[in-house]
Amino acid sequence: MALRSIASRTALWVLVGSTLVLAAMGALLLNLTRTQILEHTHHEAAALAAHAGSQIQARIDRVAVSARMLAAIIDTRQDDAEPLLRDTLAANLDMDGLAAVFRPSPNPADALPYSPFVSRLDNGTLTSRDLARDASPYWNNNWFLGGLGCSNGCWQRPFFSQSRHRQLINYSVAISRDGHPVGIINADVTLDWLHQILGSLAKPEGAYAFVLDSDGNYLAHDNPDLVGKRGAAALLVALASDQPESTRLPVAQNPRAHGAVWVYSAPIEGTRWRLGLVVPEYQIYAGVRRIFVLSLALGLLALLGVALITLLTIRRTMAPLGVLADRAEHVARGELDFELPPPRRPDEVGRLTQSFDHMRRELALHLENLARVAREKQRLASELEIAHQIQIGLLPSEHYLDAVCAYFELHAALRPARAVGGDLYSYFMLDPQRFFVMVGDVSDKGIPAALFMAQTITLAKALAPRAQTPQNLLRLLNLELCRGNDSCMFVTLLCGLLDTGNGSLVLASAGHEPPILCGRGAPQLLDFPTGAVLGLYEDSDYPEHRLRLRQGETLLMYTDGITEASDDEQRMYGIERTVESLAQVPPTAPTAGYIERLLGDVDRFVAEAAQADDITVLALTWHGATAPGTEISIGNQLADVFGALDRCENLLLEADVPAALRGDMRLVLEELMVNTVEYGYPDGRPGRIRILLQPQPDAVAVELIDDGGPFDPLQSATPDLTGDLADREQVGGLGIHLARTMASEMRYTRDADGNHLLLRFTYPNLDESPP
Amino acid sequence: MTLSLHHEFSAPDRVVVHVGGRLDAMTFGELDEAMLALLPRLGDGGTVVVDLAGLEYVSSAGLRSFARIRKSMRARNGHTLLLNPQPQVRKVFDIVKAVPVNEVFTSTQELDAYLDRMQRQITEGDNDDA
Questions:
Q1: What is the mean pLDDT of chain A?
Q2: Of the N and C termini of chain A, which has fewer Cβ atoms inside 10 Å?
């Protein structure tokens, strides 16, 4: 838990790291120090041992010198032997007794030689006796026999004197006479002083000293229990080797010492003794260990302090980071209005704080921008959606069934590739008889295309009544679209005018895909010559193509969105597939069947690929012809006019046309025809007027054709209808006004045959007639 | 069906002309001729009542004939009143606003009441003059 904070982790690592370094350095130092100390101890102990050795030697030398001197002089003063011995003994306190022992004469008859022995009693007085008088003959004793061989003096084995209750050792020197030993001087030496010397040595604490004789037995030892005992084998081996100045033994013989020990020895000259000094190893290192432990404790304490300081410093330095982390969560939640810790120093944390503040401000700006962009985007999207709705609104319904005669039917489908597109279709009744239909494709896509499309569709509808024919419409439309078309947008347009009376169709194309005629046999591509696209060249012309739809035939108009629909591998659908697809539609299929089939096939072909272009399909089916109308042809005489009016009246009566409508029609026809007769032929030539009468289920269509002078009744001025009729200057124009008012619809065209006036009288709506 | 005309003098200064059938470009001449003969027989300030009950059809030519009658009567300080126009005729009148609405009457009673009122005005006017 606590290790989550960087401060505590850093502090811990500092602590661990420093401890490791400290431990390593400590171990190294300890090792070096130990070596040093050991060497120092070796020197010291060796010196000490040597010093002790020489001290012992000095004492022994005195004994040896005295004994050898006695041996040298006693031969000649054998009689003064006892006083000599006594004086010598008195002078040398190291000696406990002195004996001058002579070999008895080989002749057993001879008296035994006087062999005085002077010894010191416990109270310090000297006593003497003649050893020759002892019960046991000395000359057979080992000490005597051994002593005879020591011409230069030698130390005998130590022994415990029963009489004197102490450990003694003899120094024997042979008394020579003529080169032969005749006796020996035997000096008894107490070993108490040896103990005193060993005890008085300035030994290190815990160390002990000992003296080994030539047989490896302890002559003296700081532990009195071991005196007289044999030295341990390892010790003896170590001392026997020639470099026994310092030897390490894993275990000491002395039970008072524990663990490994170092043994230092020095030979004692003149004897074959060795002085040994034993220092326990732990004692050597005790001091350095203590210092090391102390240093370690101090070091650890210091490290703890360092770690604590590190912890506090880092914690204090990092404190702003905690606040920043907290604030970052605010940022994540989108809350940007918060307090930041004041930057204390221009260090990393300070810079981070400043950067954080900067980031917060930039982020706020950025978020604001983003929100604005999002709003803008949303607005654009909604505008685009509205544009889409408006564009859809510009298009007429997808299905049109002629309500009057049900002789033709239209289905259309438009799929924009984007929200708005450049494809268009439109249709409308130009007059009661003729039906305009068009399909177009604006260059480019998106909003510019949509605007151009809207312009085209609106202009087409506005210009159609004036144009009257597809050829004219394309011409007029082209001129209008060329005007101010700096962006050089253009539109291809296929335009058709269907005579709903007989199915005759006039087509004109401005660079548009050729339509396909279906329904009888194989679909047929109507590849007639087309004019230039609309909007680019003002002097373009558009040839007309005429055909007559037979019953059940369907004209299919489409845009290149069909033929150029591409699949994932960029293969286009193409006109061949289009024709093949249409060939699959049975002749009895409804009009919508063509569109469903074609779009279904295109969808299957395209599969998962994105729609690249707008797709528009329009199918126009002709279901049959109207019953033939009645034609009345008359001359340009007033009487003929009234004769014709009567015939019309009779025909209408037969067709059960309501009386009120008959009256209206008679009035309109009379006014128009009288007008033609009176004004249409100012030169008085004979003329011809034709009346085409076609009763329909809810209306009567009439076409008046005359070969008189051009006259469009729709363009004549409305007469002044204010004031009293009788007061008016001219009363002309009343008839035309009446005709215009009373006909439900009136269309005028003029062609080679002369004036055509298309009239339509719808049956009065019975629901709206007054009760 | 053609035009039928006959007239009767209900008073020395008032003639009622019954017009029936169709009054169109073909027949308006007959009415014009008849009126040309008839109107001079009325004194100044006389009244022509054209009864349209039998008139089935009128075209702009007929309207012009009525306009001529009114013009002619006005020249003699007289009045032209139209009675009983049938729906077709009335419709045509409405479209071209051919005659002042107060000179068209839908029934004889309405006309008689109007004539009485007018008679009284004249009498009182005479009294005032006297």
A1: 84
A2: C
The pLDDT of residue A494 is: 94
Which residues of chain B does A727 touch, with a Cβ-Cβ cutoff of 8 Å? 71
pLDDT at A464 over 60: yes
Q: List the CATH number of the domain containing B65.
A: 3.30.750.24
A726 to B88: CB separation less than 8 angstroms, yes or no: no
The whole-number average pLDDT for the span B5-16 is 86
Both tokens assigned to B69:
């009658």
- The pLDDT assigned to B130 comes to 37
CB A694 within 8 A of CB A626: yes
Question: What pLDDT sits at residue B98?
Answer: 66
Say yes or no to pLDDT of A492 above 90. yes
Give the C-alpha separation, B112 to A222, whole Å. 182
User: Widest CA span of chain B, in angstroms?
Assistant: 52
Mean pLDDT (whole number) for A330-335: 83
Q: Is residue A771 part of a domain?
A: no
Lowest mean pLDDT among A214-218, A433-437, A574-578, A717-721: A717-721
- Cβ–Cβ gap A726/B71 under 8 Å: yes
Same domain, yes or no: A299 and A153: yes
Distance from CA of B127 to the nearest CA of A (A): 31
Cβ neighbours of residue A704 closer than 8 Å, sequence gap 6 or more = A669, A672, A673, A676, A689, A690, A691, A692, A755, A756, A757, A759
Among A68-82, A437-451, A466-480, A513-527, which stretch is predicted with the lowest mean pLDDT?
A68-82
Q: What pLDDT was estimated at residue A72?
A: 84
For residue A667, the chain B residue with the least C-alpha distance is B59
Number of domains in chain B: 1
Contacts of B50 in chain A (CB under 8 A): none
Predicted pLDDT at A426:
93
Asked if residue A662 and residue A579 are part of one domain, the reply reads no
The verdict on a CB contact (< 8 Å) between B59 and A726 is no
Stated pTM of the model: 0.43
Domain co-membership, A62 together with A100: yes
Total domains in the fold of chain A: 4
Residues of A in contact with B56 (CB under 8 A): 663
Considering only alpha carbons, which residue of chain A is nearest residue B73? A726
Q: What is the ipTM of this complex?
A: 0.87
Largest alpha-carbon pair distance within chain A? 227
Q: Is the pLDDT of residue A132 over 70?
A: yes
Residue A560 maps to which CATH number? 3.60.40.10
| pLDDT score at A673 | 92
- Same-domain status, A286 and A356: no
Show the domain range for B81.
Answer: 4-129
| Distance from the B74 Cα atom to the nearest Cα atom in chain A, whole angstroms | 9
Mean pLDDT on A249-271? 78
How many interchain CB pairs under 8 A, A with B?
A: 67
Residues A331 and A341 in one domain: no
Q: A771 pLDDT band (50/70/90 cuts)?
A: very low
Domain co-membership, A639 together with A592: no
Averaged over A175-202, what is the pLDDT? Answer: 83
Please judge whether A734 and B63 are an interchain contact, meaning their C-beta atoms are less than 8 angstroms apart: yes
Chain A residues touching residue B74 (CB < 8 angstroms): 726
Residue A36 tokens, joined: 């040093």
- Distance separating alpha carbons of residues B110 and B114, to the nearest angstrom: 6
Q: 């009114």: which residue's tokens?
A: B70
Residues in chain B whose Cβ is within 8 Å of chain A: 24-26, 56-57, 59-61, 63-64, 66-68, 70-71, 74, 87-88, 92, 95-100
Extract long-range pairs of B41-45: CB within 8 Å, 24+ residues apart.
B41/B9, B41/B15, B42/B13, B42/B14, B42/B15, B42/B76, B42/B78, B43/B12, B43/B13, B43/B76, B44/B76, B44/B77, B44/B78, B45/B13, B45/B76, B45/B77, B45/B78, B45/B122
Give A766's pLDDT tier (boundaries 50, 70, 90): low
Which domain does A107 fall in, by range?
A: 1-335
